[in-house]
Amino acid sequence: MWKADIDLDGDKMREECGVFGIFSPGSDVAQLTYYGLYALQHRGQESAGIAVSNGKTIRGEKGMGLVSEVFNDTSKLQRLNGDIAVGHVRYSTTGSSLLVNAQPLLVRYRNGFLSIVHNGNLVNGGELRAELEDGGSIFQATTDSEVIAHLIARSGEKDIEAAVKKAVPVIRGAYTFILMTRDKLIGLRDPKGIRPLSLGRTASGYVLASETCAFDTVGAEFVRDIKPGEMVVIDADGVRSEQIAESEGNSLCVFEFIYFARPDSNLEGRNVHMARKQLGRRLAQEHPVEADIVTGVPDSSLSAASGVAEQLGLPYEMGFIKNKYIGRTFIQPTQQIRDLGVKLKLNPVRQIVEGKRVVMVDDSIVRGTTSKHIIQMLRNAGAKEVHVLISSPPVKCSCFYGIDTSATGELIAAQLDVPGIAKAIGADSLGFLSEEGMVESIGLAKNGFCTACFSGCYPIKIGNCRHNKLMNDEEDNGGCGGCGIHI
Predict the structure, then answer these.
(1) Pick the catalytic residue: 17, 253, 397, 457?
(2) What domains lie within the chain, and their CATH numbers?
């Protein structure tokens, strides 16, 4: 029997963080990084930080909370003077939500200063950390990001580029790194390309960011996506790149298109909003529903909902109002207060849904807890029927590449079939988008995504877990296997 308590934010996948870097002599790089992090705030709300190099030393400011909370005093930005900067917004998956784990990390070692920001997860991070500690390394934080800093510092190479090239073959996982020295900005993407990273151009320099929406905010022009396994170096001589790890094909996390990325961002040449709208169209084709109106669960499902409405020929209505001013640390001391949590964040518009057969579109169902409460809210507001359409396949397996999902045993689709899920969440009907429909709707190559959370076929082996089934393996050795391990 599937059982779970309501968790305000626990029924969604959550991305680990967003990274931003800029090399732009003559510009206020701290202020531009601040704006860039604002654009990436959706990727992490636990901590934020900026570090700036003035050519001689690196100075940084970071703290717990939103970008606006960490940099609420303008003097903090005014103290960050220089031509190069890196910035970070974090949601923790590996490493606790503590100030010591906030980024950028600042390191002083025998070859000078180094600052690093990181998005993703090293699947062999724990193993590498143990080896480094055995060799005498002292760690201040509990994040994977510090592991790469130690590998670079201990490489024995005086040149930072050579040190990075020596460290990369040792690490395994999904990652993008942006490193800053006193005079260089370096971007690096994992050989599978699971985590995104793009290059942009300003009037006097260049920008690296997790998403292109950050370029729009700082007035930069998109140049291209960084290739899997590629290192990009930006300095006074301009931009140069090198393939320092053999590309293992593109396995971009498909949830970037489904949920994580902002609708105005572009990934692999595809606009996220348009891709989500096509997901909705295909979803309606696969699961036609007789209803009166279509509504989406704000905010990430609105694009897909508009596609569903157009395909079904039904009115697209704003059936929910989202309260965007709820504090991130809302306390839930009792079950009664927990039950009120969803109502505080989301409220149905009675005049729209009352007496109607409603198609409710959402991007995913992870544990099912929030879906159950939202459906009940629609019924309490007078909805006659609630039909749920999900613009992704059922999430059956945990992610180990920097996305926070529940253990497999807590995922409702790993425990129940579709009719069972519909009954558990109280929907009159339930339809998930097929994996084939998802890939075709986005319009990229079928093997261009990581879809492990749906299939259990992981593009990178997870430690020594005997349940791993690697993508394209001839031998089926168990898929996700329900082990529910966390790296």
Answers:
(1) 17
(2) 14-250 (3.60.20.10), 272-456+463-470 (3.40.50.2020)
